[in-house]
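Fill in residues.
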């Protein structure tokens, strides 16, 4: 066991269930944990663990909490609904001291912003690791997750959709694409995967109402340049529900680089809806 593993693992928690899953996994493995919940974002369930709360604008408080608990290893995980508006925040001295650095980061695209946050923490002596490095079950190995298997047409659509998702990822534009019958129906933009699927559901509503077969694949891939320590793409029960509403046949995700949130429930819903979930390397889907 190395020196860092003897310290509490600090989990900076945004919204959703993943921070709780990471904390539970670490604690079960015998690791001390400290959950630092972002006010207005983190789930109240963090109260089940040693925890503290801090708000946007309290970098000084965050650093004091990390120092007082003697930890230098951090996991940053969970949803954040919006970037903080520093014009409206009551910032502490630690934030004021770092403000030029922070404002420079805020002008960047999502991937560059998050990479910059990691570097800022590392310059202060912290080690940032990925949630998937603590809870390895968050990512899927190659193969089928669930009862249904894709057909040859599904695999062909998945191949094109994953290639499309990777291309928009290179532009830092999105992480997902939908293809049906070899045609691109949608590309993810800043409003996210569910919004894209909602638009597709609207386009296909008349087709689905007349009993048309489910066709098409949602593919979700990490951006090639993405730092997976803080920004790994996810699917979950809500993704399955949106894919079902859009009349899709299944979901393809990149092996080892996309998290499955609430895996048991995600699989149950996919099976109930008759959707497949395929984990694959984007270069080898239809091979």
């Amino acid at each position: 066991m190395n020196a860092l593993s003897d310290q509490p693992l600090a989990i900076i928690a945004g919204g959703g269930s993943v921070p709780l899953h990471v904390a539970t996994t670490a604690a079960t493995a015998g690791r001390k944990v400290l959950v630092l919940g972002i006010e207005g974002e983190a789930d109240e369930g963090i109260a089940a663990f040693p925890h503290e709360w801090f708000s946007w604008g309290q970098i000084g408080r965050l650093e004091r909490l990390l120092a007082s608990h003697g930890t230098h290893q951090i996991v940053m995980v969970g949803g954040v609904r919006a970037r903080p508006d520093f014009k409206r925040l009551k910032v502490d001295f630690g934030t004021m001291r770092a403000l030029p650095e922070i404002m420079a980061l805020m002008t960047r695209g999502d991937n560059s912003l998050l990479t910059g946050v990691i570097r800022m923490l590392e310059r202060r002596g912290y080690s940032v690791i990925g949630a998937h490095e603590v809870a390895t079950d968050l990512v899927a190995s190659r193969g089928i997750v669930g009862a249904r298997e894709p057909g040859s047409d599904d695999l062909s659509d998945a191949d094109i959709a994953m290639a499309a998702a990777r291309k928009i990822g290179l532009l830092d534009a999105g992480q997902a694409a939908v293809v049906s019958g070899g045609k691109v129906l949608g590309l993810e933009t800043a409003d996210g995967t569910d919004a894209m699927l909602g638009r597709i559901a609207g386009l296909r509503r008349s087709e689905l109402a007349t009993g048309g077969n489910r066709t098409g694949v949602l593919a979700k891939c990490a951006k090639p340049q993405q730092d997976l320590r803080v920004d790994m793409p996810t699917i979950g029960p809500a993704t399955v529900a949106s894919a079902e509403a859009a009349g899709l046949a299944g979901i393809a995700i990149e092996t080892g680089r996309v998290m499955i949130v609430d895996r048991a429930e995600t699989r149950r819903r996919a099976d109930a809806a008759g959707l497949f979930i395929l984990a694959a390397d984007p270069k080898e889907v239809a091979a």
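Residues 152-170 form the longest helix (19 residues).
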